[in-house]
Design brief:
single chain; alpha+beta; 2 domains; 8 helices; 27% helix
């Protein structure tokens, strides 16, 4: 609670000198292989949408958490959601270049300093994302949520995992639980928001594992198995997420 009182909320536009700190937090927050996914336009977050990158900081400037978002147009349907993180950013960039008003804000990632977890910062990030959407006059915050505990159960299909409930009826997964407690409704599964491909040597480097035969492998941090093809010298992983929507203003119109 004390940490929340001293937390300052700003954006990357306010503190552009923090990019190395943000990139350092990414290295701590994500499995190493996820830093090599097919998200080519990540730089746009800092160049085109600096005012949508949320920072939670101490008064001394230390970054506690980061929330990445972009504004975009969404028709309100599940079919109208972008299929990948890259597609989310592309739609936001296209809307900006065409001067098309955004009616939603999409979350892309929420990262908390590992040393600061357990203090409610992840919930604070979502609250600030919703507040950002409201300030921009958008009706929804949409989020491709990466369930925190899914990596503990990589062999369980995503649709079954997200249906798990605790005894009180709340979602089993803590990150899904945070979103639901803040009013989010489920939309559906995004089966491959990020795709990671690499040679066997790259996968060995990223994971510290060896892959003696072709097949599916459980890799630390992965939400589902990695497919290894030794003949093709290729490892393939697709990161599944779960779309949820927070209503933050007037209904989304099409």
């Amino acid at each position: 609670m004390e940490m929340m009182k001293e937390c300052i909320v700003c954006t990357y536009a306010d503190r552009p000198e923090t990019r190395p700190l943000i990139e350092g937090l990414e290295l701590q927050a994500w499995p190493r292989f996820m830093l090599h996914g097919d998200v080519r336009s990540w730089h746009s977050l800092f160049e085109s949408f600096a005012d949508c990158q949320l920072l939670l900081c101490r008064p001394n400037g230390e970054i506690l958490a980061v929330g990445h978002t972009v504004p975009l147009f969404w028709d309100g349907s599940f079919a109208g959601l972008p299929a990948t993180i890259e597609a989310i950013i592309d739609r936001a960039e296209q809307g900006r270049s065409e001067r098309r008003p955004a009616n939603a804000v999409s979350a892309l990632a929420a990262m908390v300093d590992p040393a600061q977890r357990g203090h409610g910062l992840s919930r604070k990030i979502v609250e600030e994302m919703k507040a950002l959407a409201a300030r921009r006059g958008c009706g929804s915050l949409i989020a491709p949520v990466r369930p925190t505990w899914k990596s503990r159960y990589p062999l369980m299909p995503m649709d079954r995992y997200v249906a798990w409930r605790r005894g009180d009826g709340a979602p089993f997964d803590p990150w899904l639980r945070v979103h639901q407690s803040l009013g989010a409704r489920p939309l559906g599964i995004a089966p491959a928001t990020v795709t990671v491909t690499g040679t066997l040597d790259e996968w060995r480097e990223w994971t510290g594992m060896d892959f003696p035969a072709s097949g599916s492998y459980v890799v630390p941090g992965a939400l589902q198995p990695v497919s290894i093809d030794r003949e093709q010298d290729l490892g393939l992983y697709q990161d599944p997420n779960y779309w949820m929507e927070h209503a933050v203003g007037p209904p989304v119109s099409s």
